[in-house]
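forwarding from the other thread:

> can someone predict this with manganese (II) ion?

sure thing
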Amino acid sequence: MTFFDFGETIDNDTEFVFFGIPWNYLSSLEIVDSAKAPQKIREISENLGLTTEMGIEIPKLKVVDVGNVAIEPTNIENNIVKIVKFMKSIFSQNKRIIPIMVGGDHFCTYPVVKTMGDSFDKKSGFGVLIFDAHLDFYKSYDKGKYSHATVSHRIFDLEYVSNNNLLIVGTRDIDVPELDITKKEQIAYLNAYTFHDIGFNSFTDKILAFFEKSNAKDIYVSIDIDVLDPSIAPGTGYAIPGGFSYRELWQILRKLAENINIIGFDVVEVSPNLDLLNNITSNLAAKLIIELISFISNK
Ligand SMILES: [Mn+2]
């Protein structure tokens, strides 16, 4: 079973490669099983209609699903190496590929961003945009420096990432140690309530202006599903009120894809065991992914 029944072989025409990282060892919550999300999201896609909201025929999109990275749950360093290797083998087949990663917990984003940034020629043009209810900016948490709650900090630690080209959007559950670090390092973030204070256009313009100022033209986008309101995305570990609606995030992503070059993206922290029986959260994730693919593809 593949995502939307797409093929499995990368060729010269392939634009997007979908792959899963079935790994939630670095979540700080015992109750989540986001490792099962890649397979669940593939299953869910079988039941969705084959056009996007804007009328794009999904089978005509140039997407390939290459399966999951083989993960050894507790071997962190080894998994990082495996994920990097997995992505390098994708790029060795076609270097223009836009990777789409489905986690797993949010830590899965770190090796993906690292691979993207390391392989990127003009590192000055690289940027990272994270949608998340959280800053994930602890220095160390739970199992140590590698955690889903430290992932933004680890990304910030990469030599080519700074407070100039890293932006976190949708925050509304920030802990004091994180606030202290982000103040000291002048990390840029936009709280979720700002969207309602200033409205869609100004909010999206703020995101675009941030990357314009830093001259970052090629942006990696990470979507923690908890950036959405838990009333529509209950299947995740931290159900924090006050998140975006599906339509709000859809609108934001559509406008971003029109104005910046999205070089890869991920959806993480979907936890099928905490979802409703109708799989609303996995469904939402499948929709978001295919809609964002079509926005990028349609430029
Ligand atoms: Mn989060």
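Residues 192-214 form the longest helix (23 residues). thats all i got for now
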